[in-house]
Amino acid sequence: MTDEQPTSSDEFEREPVPPHAQLGFKSFVGMYAGEHVAGTELMIGPLFIASGVSAFDLLVGLLLGNLLAVLSWLCFTAPIATRARLTLYYQLEKICGRHLVTLYNLANGVMFCFLAGAMVTVSATALGPIFQVPMPSLLDRYPTSWQWVVAAAVVGVAISVVAAWGYRSVAKFANIAVPWMVLVFLAFGLITARRFLDATGTEIRSVHDVWQMANTVVWRGGDPLPGQTKFTIWHVIFFAWFCNMAMHIGMSDLSVFRFARKSYHALATGAGMYVGHFMAWISASMLFAFQLYETHPDPYMVQLLQDHSARYAALTAAELSALPISAELLQDAMQIEQDLVAAGTISASEMRVRVPTPVPGDLAYGACGIAGLLCVIFAGWTTANPTIYRAGLAFQGIMPRTSRFAATLLAGALATIAGMFPGIAMKLLDFVAIYGMVLMPMGAVIFVDFWLIRKFGLQSNYAEQSQIHFNWAAGLTWFLTLATCLFLNQCPGIELQIFFVSLPGWFVAAVLYVLLSKLYQRKVVGPTGGAETA
Amino acid sequence: MLLGTIIPPLLFLIGTLPLDQCQGIMLIATLIWFAVTPFWMGRETCEGKMGGG
Asked: What's the predicted TM-score (pTM) here?
């Protein structure tokens, strides 16, 4: 970022950004490239591997999904931002009224806290190799040991106090760290590629050899690890498209692009998508793929498979223990254990098959040594810090009498507690999808209100025009859309996965907002004193 | 200085540098980067970094 970076929280909060404060394309390239190299990338990449994604599905899915994300910023967010030039909150207040914006702030603040909690979890894993802290596993949802709780608490409290006291210093540090972090992420991929070559004895003579290795040992496809959702190309496309849904289709980045001289500056988001959500995810996924390749069945698992499965009876113990761990092996071993528990042969407490877990600290240390560990700490810290700060701002909007310091500490406390629960980080793919879904309906409301509602003979910016504090048409659109998404996700016979529900959800929100506004809007008096609508 | 972060992994990839040396050089380059960069990189805010992931 340069000195002419958007500083969205301090300036022009209740007025359009004037021409002299508008910024050029390059300002946004640096900002987005930095924003999307976060600690969470170190969980998302490995979770793709845990979800059984194949090489083609991952590479093509990420190319297409990230393209759709860039187009969403370009076609949804930036055109409104560069015309209205208002913050998201002010734009929402004009449409929805102050009280509904307060509710939106609460939802946004809580989601930010959970996201920051995942970053705390990631950073806390960097303490594992240093202090021998036992790490939670992929299937853990709750705190697993007092050492883990202490590790998460130390990291969370440190981040929170710094966010409350020294936010600006960390923001400056983040700008210095970003170019370095991007290269360390790239180094994760390069180093892991060599380790794969050495471990498999592969010699690369052509692109075909690279593709062969990618398909057979790195992104092998097949079943997901136990407890994870199977990812196809559609999952990858939709995940890459919607993981920042709150920012583009949800319109959070109105606050950023109101500073853009031209709406095409939104193309700068491509820097973030293809550095952070392509290169960084691929590199991070390779780290976990190599961990799986290097993990082999332990003697207990070998014994279990040999004694209780005809499928493995032909293999010797040495052959079995030389196999790389795979979803199929784990499923078979866990199934045998469950059968033994059901038969009363062993008790549930004696079940010892464990699913390999992506622990960012261990993965990064294995590839890049201490520089890798520092990358995990900095990537989590520099992105959790502004996230907690933003959550604090959102809470302060709800409780105006609370100081920003106290509100940030409150947000930090919530994030720290959330960080102690590894379930958020271990189910980060699902959480990110939920995060986008929760805020998406208000983006649809803004889109319809800005472009379409007057074509239906209705009033835009209805709350401002009618001096109301809660636009029930917008509020009900939000709640009913979320209820519809929940229904689509949960209803037997439909069970649309959480990664996909936001697409139909957006159209539901758009239609609902028009219909409910038809019912709700009454004759209002505009600023000129004339009747605006009937 | 950033070259010290990315050249060693490239050399490791093509098989001309062992991993421990690669990691050592990366660490030294990292320390130099964070020690020196604040003096010339006077960039200020980063409030756009609000989410990531």
From this structure: 0.90
